[in-house]
């Protein structure tokens, strides 16, 4: 992600055959209560929520954080109770009676006329927006993807089909150039889970193989960790010498065979997903948002032990563990064992931001 624009997250729910709605004038509910709550949490973590004028006309959303607890938490951090509301108004603009303009609770910016997406994103960055959630509709989602300006997709799959060509699809056809997220450029499946009868999946877009990019993806992965106040949220990615992503993990990610998921560490999960005899491990790099743990109370083997046992020769990390929850000497132990340890402290503030509640408590 370029520093000059926000991280862009596309969020939508679709039927199994990829429709955002049916063709009737009434709004179709694709998500369930648990999934709406997940979306509310994602809104609360964003600096702005963007929709197109068509969505305003069709659904007239308020685009506010619903949970009073989440609004209070934002306020305690010095933020507005709900993120900035952003509308791509297009040539027709929007109705002055629209809820985003009349309902209090957040500020609203409407971009009139045909503003290019890079122009809009640049303006939002200047307004302090670092994380932008795009909630639709189809034309807007398509435009972000086709322009390669989406960094992640969060999709809820509803367990039914629409099957009507008159209904809106999640993504239109972008034209001859197609989408950059092609079979040759697959996205990274960061997380999936069932929320009642809805299947939620989160995909991250990878643009290059640089250490900075891959380490940045671990920080995004760490946002999928079930939040707790007494343990860090960490993401890890194992990458083969040829750039192939071999596996991913995040703290407390459930993995069959590892035992109590509340004890699972990111690097441990990523390593456990691979066959220990996989020869690619011996020339791989493990990227981790936090220094690999050592020592560890929750299980006999620390992440440092797992990395050494797997024979991974290179570790890239963003943030050295501060002496709050434990005193960690993972980086020193790895170096002493001959592992190359690269630290990219420029990414440490983003790790601290994800872990702000743990660090504030510690
Ligand atoms: N590197 C790393 N990855 C994770 O996923 C983690 N949760 C942690 N946490 C740190 O590991 C140490 C031992 O933790 P527990 O015994 O599991 O509580 C400690 O230093 C934690 O802060 N580290």
Walk me through the structure.
There is one protein chain. By secondary structure, the chain is α/β, with parallel strands linked by helices. The protein folds into 2 domains: 7-204, 3-Layer(aba) Sandwich (Dihydrofolate Reductase, subunit A); 211-361, Cytidine Deaminase, domain 2. Helix content is 27%, strand content 22%. The chain contains 12 helices and 13 strands. It has helices at 33-44, 53-59, 68-76, 99-102, 117-126, 138-146, 211-222, 266-272, 303-310, 330-336, 348-354, 356-361, and strands at residues 7-15, 48-52, 84-90, 108-112, 131-134, 152-158, 188-195, 198-204, 235-239, 245-250, 285-290, 314-319, 340-343. Strands 4-3-2-5-1-6-8-7 form an 8-stranded mixed sheet. Strand 9 and strand 10 (245-250) form a beta hairpin. Helix 8 (266-272) runs parallel beside helix 9 (303-310) and helix 9 runs parallel beside helix 10. The radius of gyration is 21 Å and the shape is globular. It starts with 6 loop residues before the first strand and ends with a helix. The mean pLDDT is 96. The protein binds the ligand Nc1nc(O)c(N)c(N[C@@H]2O[C@H](COP(=O)(O)O)[C@@H](O)[C@H]2O)n1. Ligand LIKH6CAM binds at residues 231-232, 234, 251, 263, 265-267, 290-293, 296-298, 303, 321, 325-326, 328.
Bound molecules: the ligand Nc1nc(O)c(N)c(N[C@@H]2O[C@H](COP(=O)(O)O)[C@@H](O)[C@H]2O)n1
CATH topology of the largest domain: Dihydrofolate Reductase, subunit A
Query: Based on DSSP secondary structure assignment, what is the total number of beta strands?
Result: 13
In what order do the strands lie side by side in the largest sheet? 4-3-2-5-1-6-8-7
Total helical segments? 12
The portion of residues assigned to helices is: 25-40%
Which ranges are low-confidence, i.e. pLDDT below 50, for 5 or more consecutive residues? Answer: none
**How does the major sheet shape up?**
8 strands, mixed
Reading the helices and strands in chain order gives EHEHHEHEHEHEEEHEEHEHEHEHH
CATH homologous superfamily (4th level) name of the largest domain: Dihydrofolate Reductase, subunit A
What value does the Rg take, in angstroms? 21 Å
- Report the CATH architecture of the largest domain: 3-Layer(aba) Sandwich
Strand content: 15-25%
Distance between the termini: 31 Å
Q: Estimate nothing, just give the exact number of structural domains.
A: 2
Q: Mean pLDDT across all residues, rounded?
A: 96
CATH class of the largest domain reads Alpha Beta
Secondary-structure content class:
alpha/beta
What would you call the shape?
globular
């Amino acid at each position: 992600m370029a520093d000059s624009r926000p991280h862009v997250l596309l969020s939508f729910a679709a039927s199994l055959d990829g429709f955002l709605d049916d063709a009737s004038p009434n709004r179709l509910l694709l998500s369930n209560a648990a999934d709406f709550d997940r979306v509310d949490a994602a809104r609360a973590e964003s600096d702005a929520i963007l929709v197109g004028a068509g969505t305003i006309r069709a659904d007239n959303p308020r685009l506010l954080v619903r949970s009073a607890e989440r609004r209070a938490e934002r306020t305690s951090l010095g933020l507005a109770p709900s993120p900035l509301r952003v509308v791509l108004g297009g040539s027709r603009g929007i109705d002055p009676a629209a809820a985003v303009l009349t309902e209090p609770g957040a500020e609203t910016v409407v971009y009139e006329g045909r503003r290019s997406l890079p122009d809009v994103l640049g303006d939002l960055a200047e307004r302090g927006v670092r994380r932008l959630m795009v909630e639709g509709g189809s034309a807007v989602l398509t435009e972000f993807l086709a322009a390669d300006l989406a960094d992640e997709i969060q999709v809820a799959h509803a367990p039914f089909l629409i099957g009507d060509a008159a209904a809106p699809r999640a993504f239109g056809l972008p034209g001859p150039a197609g989408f950059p997220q092609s079979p040759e450029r697959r996205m990274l499946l960061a997380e999936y889970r069932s929320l009642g009868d809805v299947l939620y999946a989160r995909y991250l877009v990878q643009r290059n193989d640089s250490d900075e990019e891959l380490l940045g993806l671990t920080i995004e992965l760490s946002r999928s960790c079930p939040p707790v106040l007494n343990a860090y949220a960490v993401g890890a990615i194992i990458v083969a010498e040829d750039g192939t992503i071999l596996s991913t993990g995040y703290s407390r990610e459930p993995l069959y065979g590892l035992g109590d998921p509340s004890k699972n560490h990111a690097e441990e999960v990523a390593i456990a997903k691979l066959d220990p005899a996989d020869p690619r491990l011996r020339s791989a790099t493990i990227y981790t948002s936090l220094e690999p743990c050592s020592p560890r109370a929750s299980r006999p083997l620390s992440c440092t032990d797992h990395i050494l046992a797997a024979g991974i020769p290179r570790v890239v990390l963003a943030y050295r563990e501060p002496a709050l929850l434990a005193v960690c000497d993972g980086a020193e132990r790895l170096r002493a064992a001959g592992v190359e340890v690269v630290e990219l402290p420029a990414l440490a503030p983003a790790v601290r931001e994800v872990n702000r509640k743990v660090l504030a408590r510690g």
